[in-house]
Every structure is written in structure tokens, then in C-alpha cells.
Amino acid sequence: MAAASVSLVVAAGAAACGPKGNDAKGSGGDSAPHKGGTLTVLNSEPQTDFDPARLYTSGGGNVPSLVFRTLTTRNRENGAAGAKVVPDLATDTGRPSKGATVWTYTLKKGLKYEDGTPITSADIKYGIERSFAPELSGGAPYLRDWLVGAADYQGPYKDKKGLPAIETPDERTIVFHLDKPEGEFPFLATQTQFAPVPKGKDTGTRYEEHPVSSGPYKVVKNENDGEHLVLERNPNWSAAVDAERKAYPDTIDVRSGLDSSVINQRLSASQGADAAAVTTDTNLGPAELAKVTGDKELAARVGTGHFGYTNYIAFNPKVKPFDNPKVRQAIAYAIDRSSVVNAAGGSALAEPATTFLPDQKSFGYTPYDLFPAGGTGNAAKARELLAQAGDKSGLTVTLTHSNDKNFETSPEIATAIQDALKKAGITVKLQGLEDNDYRDKIHSVKTEPGFFLAHWGADWPSGGPFLAPIFDGRQIVKDGANFNTGLLDDKSVNDEVDAINKLTDLDAAAKRWGALDKKIAEQALVVPLFHPVYKRLYGSDVKNIVISDWTGVLDISQVAVK
Fold first, then answer.
1. Which of 403, 425, 407, 404 is nearest to 416 (CA)?
2. What CA–CA distance (Å, rounded) separates 524 from 514?
């Protein structure tokens, strides 16, 4: 996932949990959840490009997964149980063969589109192929890299022969042939590119206006490119072949482009339709959270979640003085994580991090603290290392950050770091850039600064999509968006990435990812700072709150309204 791709995170520590008493059976009211009513979704970001080919989602997304079913999906349960991949359209999570280079799926019987026609394996193959069309770009890039012969494929509009790497021997069977072993293919199969698209109903770039539903809801209105979406029940969806989505409300009304403060005010007041409203992308800020915490009724309507996401300092070791490991280690020792957490909104909204991998079992989290700074920084140890590096009289460096008020890579965090490093004799000059300029600068090998703030979130809950893009040398992009900020190209790291990718035992793979995280950390190419915590209000008439470690936010496929 691109580090700046916040839409994936929000549509994205310890185990996730909802309000007190929350469990997978439901919360938010005393009576059992029932069908009926309208759920309103109040968001700041529009649900643009509502086409399964163009969406970049984790686990199928939140609003998208109401319309688009995929071969597999995320488990719709609270906390760590929700970080597992489960079957969706398929009967299982996939059957690997030939060393995990071939994956075979069988579709469930009785699957239908909104018009009652059957869903076939050919529709899934076509849906994937159209995601390669340049005019429908935007989805996850893995298929182009993983499928045999897919690197230069331009989609079915230009190449009607399709992709030989995807075979459909019959209407219920689909087989994928990969260039290399990929034990985590079942996670990839949760992305919306794996949603079926009937070829005869494909309208190209206009498909987003009325995509053909395979899920419990169909699109009846899409205004201003996702600014206002209205979803109503798909009469041909059956709970008998969909164990994951509850589909309680009759209608889902998604309204976007709203100011975050307005969203929280409306959810807090819960007047009229807003009583049955939620948000999937708007957090409570520090000031709002303080107000909510002091109100018993409001506090009971806050869902708390954690997503696999890390905010960190990045170093470019090609730029002096960061080419010296002792300088990088000194900064790691000098960091005052307490002040950084406070700058990020306080301990309710951020948890200190000493590992790059998030504190969740599914990622392979292995506790370590190689450069222990304590809660407030170890200035003495930092000075000692700087002296060893030849900087006995102190050091002056420039820290690049975004001017966007996001409590992640913003001025507040940069200032906290500046203050902490001053105690260690390091003078930090701050270079604040407008967000687009900041992203362009840090993601280009040619312009990447030596010392800057960054963040990363996972495409699925595993160490693979967390460590490989940042530390696999073969993923360094010289003429495009590069995320391997330390420009690390270590054969032992690359080889271990390949070895873990061969594993289809995901628990065994997780342990290996955790060990690799610790090994890479020895090079001090990044300094983990904190993992965000998501605090989201929901309306007083909303029931059945489920928040998984996969998304960290309320799952609207489970919600019921009074």
C-alpha cells in the first residue's frame, strides 16, 4: 500500500475492540439486531471510481464489499479473529500446488448477480483482465507482477485473447498460474479486482455508474463520482451463500465531501437520520475526544480499532551524515516517544512503537527495542554515539515533513522530534512542504532527503506487504514512486522474503516475518515512532458494532439500525 494512500487505511497496537461489551454478536443496544431501516454513512472522502477494477482496497473495502463479492474476504469478527482470510465466492481460501505457483478455486453453487443471472468463473477472469486496461487503472499492482506473462498485458479492450495465466476449465473453476511462489495469494484474492464482471454488461469507464452487484446491495444512485451513493437490497443475494455479510439495513445512504468536524458534530448530536449514521473515514481529534470522554453517553458510542500501520522516521543512507550508522543509531536513542505520542493526539490516539511491524500476531509481531530510548529519550547514549561518529561538537540536520495537519507526518510530530534531538546536541532544521510536494520529494530516488517523516499501512494483515515494499531491494523504483526509503538491497533480506513467500502456512510465515523485522532493524534505516489508534463515533440507533484488526474501523456489513 502506498504510504500516502490514506483511503485504503480508513476504508483502515493491540487487538482491536469496540466499545465496552462489544463482541461479534453485536453491541450498541439491548435488543437483537434486526433487518430494516436506512443506514447513513457520513464521510469526508468521496467513494470515487466505484468500479472493482479501479478500487484499491484492503479485504474488499468497506462500502465496496457491500456490492462486490470476491473469491475470498476478511473474516467479519472483532479483533484478531478479524485478521483472518476466509472464503467468499469460493468454497475455500484456495488450493495451492506446484510450490504455491498455482492456485485453484471452486465457486459456490447458487451465486447470482442482481439481475438473477448466474456468476461464473469466466466472469471473475474477465473482471481481473479488465483491471489491466489503462483507462481502468488504480487497483492493487500485484496481479501484473505475480501472474505469468501479465507484465505487458493491456486488458481485454485491446487484447481480446485475455490472460492465459488464468484458466477457467468449467463454470465453477478458476486456476491462476504465478511467476513465483506466493503463499499469501488468498489475501490478494480479497481485493476488488477479483469481483466478477459480466462481459455483456461492461460499459468501460462508465461501469462505475451502475456496476452489476454480486453482493447484498446494488447501486441505485451515484452522484458526483461517489459523493452521494445510495445502495438498496439486491433481491438475488442470498445469505445461504454468503456467511460474512449480515445486510441488516434496507438502504445504505453514503454522503461524502463533508468536513470532519461537521461529521463528528452530527454523529454526536444524533438527530433525525443521523441517529442511524456511522463514518468509515473520520477519526475523533484530540479536542473532540476530550469532550466525548467526559460524556458518558457519547463515550459509549465510540468504536476503537487498530489497523496495521506504522509512523516512522526514514533515513536515506546515501545522504551525509546519515551514511554513518552511528548517526542513525544516535537519533534512534534520542527520540522522545512520549512527546511524539502527545503530538499525535495523546495515548488514546497513538501507541509508541519500537518495532516496524505493528503489534498484532497476524503480522508476526516480535517485540524488540534495539536502541532503547525509554519514554523520554536517551540523550546521553545519543551523544556517546555521535562522538564515536566524529561529531563531538554537535550536529545540524534537516527534517522534511508535510504541512498537512494529519498528526502523522505533520509539523507537530516534527517539532517533537526537533525538541528531543536538541537535548542530544543535534540541531534540527524543519523543512515543511505542502502535502503533494512532500510526497513527490520523499518517493523519488532522485530527490529523497536524508531525514524525513513517513508512514506505511498494510494491504492485508501480514508482514509481507509491510516489509517487502520498504526493504526488498528488488522493489527499489528508480524512475517512479519508490517506497524503499533506505534503498536497502541486501541479498540475505531479499532471499528471506522469497523463502517466506513460499510458505502457505501463514502462522509459520508470520514468525519468519517477525524475525526478519528484527534483523532489518539492526541497520537503523528507520526509527518506528507510533501506531495510530482509530476512535470513531457512531449514531445512537446503530447496533452490532464489529471492528476487526484487518480494517481497524466499524464494519458496515455487520451494522443494524433501530
1. 407
2. 16
Nine cell digits for residue 17: 475492540
Measured from the Cβ of residue 446, the count of other Cβ atoms closer than 10 Å reads 8
Helical spans, DSSP H, in 258-351: 260-269, 286-293, 296-299, 325-334, 337-343
Running DSSP on this structure, what letter comes out for residue 445? T
Instruction: Kindly list the distances between the CA atom of residue 521 and the CA atoms of 343, 374, 391, 436, in Å, as whole numbers in the listed order.
Output: 24, 17, 23, 29
The answer to whether 435 and 405 have CB atoms below 8 angstroms apart is no
Nine-digit cell string for 373: 530510548
- Residues 490-511 as b/e (b if ≥16 CB within 10 A, e otherwise) read eeebbebbeebbebbebeebbb
Distance CA 239, CA 273 (A): 27
Number of C-beta neighbours around residue 268 at 10 A: 20
For the question of whether the overall pTM of this predicted structure is more than 0.85, the answer is: yes
Question: Cα–Cα distance between 135 and 133 in angstroms, integer?
Answer: 5
DSSP class of 79:
B
Question: Could you say which DSSP state residue 538 is in?
Answer: B
Contact 308, 363 (CB under 8 A): yes
Amino acid identity for residue 192 in this structure: T
C-alpha cell at 383: 551523544
Residues contacting residue 9 through CB under 8 Å, at least 6 positions apart: 1, 58, 307, 309, 457, 552
Cα 217 from Cα 254, distance rounded (Å)? 13
Reading the block at residue 405, the C-alpha cell is 495537519
* Lookup: cell for 81: 479473529
Alpha carbon distance 275, 38 (integer Å): 10
- Bridge partners of 40, per DSSP, are 253, 277
CB within 8 Å of 241: residues ≥ 6 apart: 108, 109, 110, 111
How far from 34 is each of 41, 132, 412, CA to CA, in Å?
Answer: 19, 41, 45
Best CA proximity match to 470, nearest among 306, 315, 354, 365: 315
pLDDT in tens, the chain (562 residues): 444 333 333 333 222 333 233 333 344 444 689 999 999 999 999 999 999 999 999 899 999 999 999 999 999 999 999 999 999 999 999 999 999 999 999 999 999 999 999 999 999 999 999 999 999 999 989 999 999 999 999 999 999 899 999 999 999 999 999 999 999 999 999 999 999 999 999 999 999 999 999 999 999 999 999 999 999 999 999 999 999 999 999 999 999 999 999 999 999 999 999 999 999 999 999 989 999 999 999 999 999 999 999 999 999 999 999 999 999 999 999 999 999 999 999 999 999 999 999 999 999 999 999 999 998 999 999 999 999 999 877 799 999 999 998 889 999 999 999 999 999 999 999 999 999 999 999 999 999 999 999 999 989 999 999 999 999 999 999 988 999 999 999 999 999 999 999 999 999 999 999 999 999 999 999 999 999 999 999 999 999 999 999 999 999 999 999 8
The rounded distance, in Å, linking the Cα atoms of 160 and 26 is 47
